[in-house]
Amino acid sequence: xxxxxxxxxxxxxxxxxxxxxxxxxxxxxxxxxxxxxxxxxxxxxxxxxxxxxxxxxxxxxxxxxxxxxxxxxxxxxxxxxxxxxxxxxxxxxxxxxxxxxxxxxxxxxxxxxxxxxxxxxxxxxxxxxxxxxxxxxxxxxxxxxxxxxxxxxxxxxxxxxxxxxxxxxxxxxxxxxxxxxxxxx
Length: 185
What we know:
This is DDE Tnp4 domain-containing protein. By secondary structure, the protein is mainly alpha-helical. The chain has helices at about 5-10, 10-15, 50-80, 90-115, 120-140, 155-175, and strands at about 25-30, 40.
């Protein structure tokens, strides 16, 4: 099951009004469909290139997501049980057990990350900071690559989501000094 499907079937995805208000949103990868509360990278249409502004937007989103992906990587490195939880989810009780397991790992990690005398923590911090810097440099140099299919047909609310993504793209590009790319097509 991919992340987008898991999100859609979660309480947050199925009842977003309880989690998002006003202009709140989450950034997502290309497997997500734009919604008023989900802003994914811009997919490259078949047989076409993205404009420079869309490429820059995707690169900035990728750079932001690196920290999140690294946080998951650090957690899985410290707590190997998170790589493959030894619990089959067959009921609500099983789901609660998995959520508790993950929560405990996060709490322990947050405690340990502040310890300056923990050699594993110090080694992990240095290693992941180096990897993060290298990935950001690569994205800055090469951009985000890959071709995917166009989005499925969109409803009116999805059109509002696309407009919101355009506005957010403009804000991100301007904030990062690339506002001039918006004028080019």
